[in-house]
Amino acid sequence: MTVAPDHSAFGAYGFRIVGVDDAYPLLNHVPADWPEIEVRQEIGPGEAADLRVGADDADLALITGGRVLITRQPPAALFAVPVPLTAEELVHPYLAPVASVHALWRGWLPFHSGGVVLAGRVWGIVGGREVGKSALAASFAMRGHPVVTDDVLVVDRDHLIYAGPRTLDLRRSAAKHFRLGQDLGVVGRRERWRLNLEPVADRVPLGGWVFPAWGDEIRVDRCGVTNRLRCLAESRSVGGPGTNPQQLLRLSGLPAFDFMRPKDWDRNEESVEALIEVLESVP
Questions:
Q1: What's residue 8's pLDDT?
Q2: 49 burial type by CB count under 10 A (0-12 exposed, 13-18 middle, 19+ buried)
Q3: How far apart are CA 15 and CA 281, in angstroms?
Q4: Which of 65, 109, 227, 242 is deepest in the core (most CB within 10 A)?
Q5: DSSP letter at 91?
Q6: Overall domain count for the chain
Q7: Is 33 exposed, middle or buried (0-12, 13-18, 19+ CB in 10 A)?
Q8: Would 168 be classed as within a structural domain?
Q9: Predicted TM-score of the model (pTM)
Q10: In a domain, 1, yes or no
Q11: Residue 184 belongs to a domain
Q12: Do residues 16 and 34 touch, judged by C-beta distance below 8 A?
């Protein structure tokens, strides 16, 4: 007799996720007592303001059309979209803003950031679009360092990071360089080549921050407190009721590095090795 898996114990970003049965292999096995978010969708031309996050509900516009209505009680997200989303799309990337809002309501801070594990600590890879966050995470993964999250990093009050879905979505040039990833076509706002990630602990302590940028040379420099506070504030994936300035200030006190490297795949290995050497030296 085959026993069906307990789908209630699968999740990401610190939450159990229900309603995406076909995509449970892309989620983490998590404690059954974690808070739940039910994900649903309906077909319709839904319209929303670009962003509205209140104390009990939120209404976010989707760049691909439609909207997502998020409620605190019951904890749920309803996607109103013109074209059905697959369960895999709902899990990544569309789950990220939902989890960000619910994280904010719980007093956690969500950042637009990747995260890699080095010596038992997470280093957040923080930056805007097209600074190579996912490619950098892939470089760590190929060296045996776990990737805890691709594009949203959720930090709780104890500075623990909650693992994201077990996927890493690369851009064309990175997929070609690493010879990795399944071509998904356009998902969300861009083409994606998806790499499935190995399981990782559901919670890992935060060690510090990396702020990548493109430049003419390879440099790994300590980031000043003022600049890291500004970068973190600008990189929050969502803001609204529940944002704790003191928590953001504490997070800015962790070690942080500006990481500059050439936009040249021939120098990728050299640049990543330079970064890892510096991070491994942090007490």
A1: 56
A2: exposed
A3: 33
A4: 109
A5: I
A6: 1
A7: exposed
A8: yes
A9: 0.91
A10: no
A11: yes
A12: yes
28: closest CA among 17, 39, 40? Answer: 17
Rounded-to-integer distance, Cα 10 and Cα 21, Å: 10
State the residue range of the domain holding 107: 7-280
| Predicted local distance difference test score (pLDDT) of residue 50 | 62
* Distance from C-alpha of 68 to C-alpha of 251, rounded to nearest angstrom: 29
- Could you identify the residue written with the tokens 């490297």? 261
Tell me which residue of 264, 265, 261, 259 sits closest to 116, measured CA to CA.
259
- Asked if residues 131 and 212 have their Cβ atoms less than 8 Å apart, the reply is yes
Positions in the chain short of pLDDT 50: 1-4
Structure-token pair, residue 213: 């940028």
Query: Which residue carries 């010596």 as its tokens?
Result: 119
Mark out the alpha helices in 61-132 (DSSP H runs): 87-89, 95-105
Q: What distance lies between CA 199 and its chain's CA centroid?
A: 15
Within 8 A by CB and 6+ apart from 224, the residues are none
